Amino acid sequence: MANFTAFVGCVSLLLAALIRVVCGDITDGNTEHLKREHSLMKPYQGVGSSPSSQWDFSGSTLVTSSYVRLTPDERSRQGSIWNTVPCYLKDWEMHVHFKIHGQGKKNLHGDGIALWYTKDRLHTGSVFGNQDQFLGLSIFLDTFRNDLQGMDRSFPYISAMVNNGSVSYDHGKDGRSSELGGCSAEIRNREFDTYLAIRYSKGRLTVMMDVDDKNEWKECIDIGGVRLPTGYFFGASAATGDLSDNHDIISLKLYQLMVEHTPEEENMDWTKIEPSVSLLKSPKDNIDDPTGNFRGTPLTGWKVFLLLLCALLGIVVCGVVGAVVFQKRQERNKRFY
Ligand SMILES: [Ca+2]
């Protein structure tokens, strides 16, 4: 039986190692793929102060050695921080470490943070401190419910929007008419670290969060058919109105995802792509969609992982059955002699 225990131990170790390897390059922040020129990390040396700086900031933004405060917990403030280096990666994942906190009691705080991947940068405006009718992608961390008719969802609410410059964000409706997907999440006044991950790869946009101190990603948004060009800028902005909060960014870490593309995809000019979405609903709601659009953009890493997991489970089951049969036979043999 000792041999069998050792065998199971070995398989468990192998399985753990495999999970680390397969997941590593997707969400684990594999350091070799971290792109420092697009990342903002403590102690934020040189941010905004030199011509060679990789991050600019404007408005109420305050940079300290341990956080970047986009707005303080005061009324009518707007602040932003922007990467000065355009991003030419085709597949990427941004990890956002943020903190939203303030004195306001339930529902008496606002308005939230927006994360951007857009053509323009440093244009102050009405959408969480940034310009409306933007070109690109935005993820909103909306902490205040403006739309009193929309009681079917609880706030804070995280949502995504892709814009080709023609659509206005409807603040009064919390952007509901233009949102691609979203989820409710307790992201305010938490005592522990809160994170968001935005992944864009092969036309698929995935937003995950880690806001319950469990050190694991929970899916919030997952949509296919999203087209975004390369050469846009990453940024973050926040705004307060009559109600307020401290909106802090602790870090923005950008990882390059190693994904293969077809020769045709490689040869096209990705900077010329117009931001668009061909599939408006979450792939999860479209399982029976006969067009099967979303199936063209699977999460390859996960497929491989599941296959390997099944294979390993098969080996474990075979091992257990084998060991039991072997032991039974030994016992029977003992009885005979
Ligand atoms: Ca709102």
State the main characteristics.
single chain, 337 residues, alpha+beta, Jelly Rolls, 2 domains, seven-stranded antiparallel sheet, 3 helices, 17 strands, globular, binds calcium ion, D-mannose binding, metal ion binding, membrane, glycoprotein, golgi apparatus
Shape: globular
* Poorly predicted spans: 16-29, 282-299
Q: Please, how many domains?
A: 2
Which CATH architecture of the largest domain is right?
Sandwich
Bound molecules: calcium ion
What does the largest sheet look like? 7 strands, antiparallel
Number of strands: 17
Topology-level CATH name of the largest domain: Jelly Rolls
For the largest sheet, list the strands in their spatial order: 1-4-15-6-8-9-10
| Distinct helical segment count | 3
What is the string of helix and strand elements? HEEEEEEEEEEEEEEEEHEH
| Overall helicity | 10-25%
The overall pLDDT, averaged over residues, is 85
Distance between the termini: 21 Å
Into which percentage range does the β-strand content fall? 25-35%
Give the helix/strand class. alpha+beta
Whole-number radius of gyration?
A: 24 Å
Instruction: Just give the CATH class of the largest domain.
Output: Mainly Beta
Q: Report the oligomer.
A: single chain
Membrane topology: Single-pass type I membrane protein; Single-pass membrane protein
Transmembrane segments: 304-326
InterPro entries: ConA-like_dom_sf, Intracellular_Lectin-GPT, Lectin_leg, VIP36_lectin
Signal peptide: 1-24
